[in-house]
């Protein structure tokens, strides 16, 4: 099984001293493979890129995937994408809209299903608006708000249901606790926040291996 994980800076692992949730998945899979005597050739690729939107994932999806094709191997895909699509600046300039997000997700799903039926999406995490509306370190008025995130999550959940894809509700787990304590800078998870994501995702990884 070859597992490709696409996403943005959260997937890439920013502000986690252990490399992020996707790298933790990679370490788990490699550890299990070694224990088994390297019988199945399970591999994980962390393809998170800082700042990526859904449109940017679509643009690089084919090249990234084809570069990692192996004869007679099974594939699975995990996507954690959409937070940067919710970005806006001073309530005037919007990176995307829920309608465009829906259209691009449909494109991405269509591309992915050429390679595998094993497709998972992780929903968008809540943010600490005291730090993200606007982002204090930004001079261009960048903003992330929970209202926008909720509307994009609704689109994502609806599409996963309609296509019978796995939808991993990380935001629900965050909101069950004091989620701001899971964030390093109001938007990116800290070590504990990445651990929460890993714990939820690894359950699904175990099912497909």
Q: Ranges with pLDDT <50 over ≥5 residues?
A: none
In angstroms, what is the radius of gyration? 17 Å
Shape: globular
CATH topology, anyone? Rossmann fold
Structural class of the secondary elements? alpha/beta
Quantity of strands, as a count: 8
Q: Give a quick account of the main beta sheet: strands, pairing sense, barrel closure.
A: 5 strands, parallel
Give your account of this protein's structure.
This protein is of the alpha/beta class and about 210 residues long. Helix content is about 45%, strand content about 15%. It has 8 helices and 8 strands. The chain has a 5-stranded parallel beta sheet with strand order 2-1-3-6-8, with helices on both faces. Strands 5-4-7 form a 3-stranded antiparallel beta sheet, with no helix packed on it. Helix 2 packs across helix 8 (about 190-209), helix 3 (about 55-65) packs parallel to helix 4 and helix 4 runs parallel beside helix 6 (about 145-160). The model has no long low-confidence stretch (mean pLDDT about 95).
Name some characteristics of this structure.
209 residues; alpha/beta; Rossmann fold; 3-stranded antiparallel beta sheet; 8 helices; 8 strands; 44% helix; 15% strand; globular
How are the SSEs ordered, and which strands pair?
Blueprint: E1 2-7, H1 9-12, H2 21-35, E2 43-48, H3 54-66, E3 75-80, E4 88-89, E5 93-94, H4 98-112, E6 119-122, H5 129-132, E7 142-143, H6 146-162, E8 166-168, H7 170-175, H8 191-208
Parallel strand pairs: 1-2, 1-3, 3-6, 6-8
Antiparallel strand pairs: 4-5, 4-7
Helix pairs in contact: 2-8, 3-4, 4-6
């Amino acid at each position: 099984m070859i597992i490709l994980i696409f996403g943005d800076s959260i997937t890439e692992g920013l502000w986690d001293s252990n490399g992020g949730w996707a790298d933790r998945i990679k370490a788990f899979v490699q550890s299990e493979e070694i224990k088994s005597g390297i019988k199945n050739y399970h591999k994980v690729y962390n393809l998170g890129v800082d700042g990526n939107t859904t449109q940017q994932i679509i643009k690089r999806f084919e090249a990234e995937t084809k570069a990692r094709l192996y004869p007679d191997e099974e594939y699975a895909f995990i996507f954690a994408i959409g937070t940067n699509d919710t970005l806006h600046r001073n309530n005037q300039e919007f990176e995307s809209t829920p309608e465009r997000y829906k259209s691009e997700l449909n494109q991405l799903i269509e591309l992915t299903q050429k390679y595998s039926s094993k497709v998972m999406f992780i929903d968008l995490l809540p943010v600490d608006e005291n730090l993200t509306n606007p982002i204090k370190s930004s001079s261009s008025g960048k903003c992330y708000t929970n209202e926008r995130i909720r509307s994009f999550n609704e689109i994502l959940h609806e599409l996963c249901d309609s296509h019978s894809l796995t939808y991993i509700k990380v935001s629900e787990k965050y909101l069950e606790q004091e989620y701001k304590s899971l964030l390093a800078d109001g938007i990116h998870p800290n070590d504990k926040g990445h651990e929460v994501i890993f714990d939820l995702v690894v359950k699904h990884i175990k099912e497909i291996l």
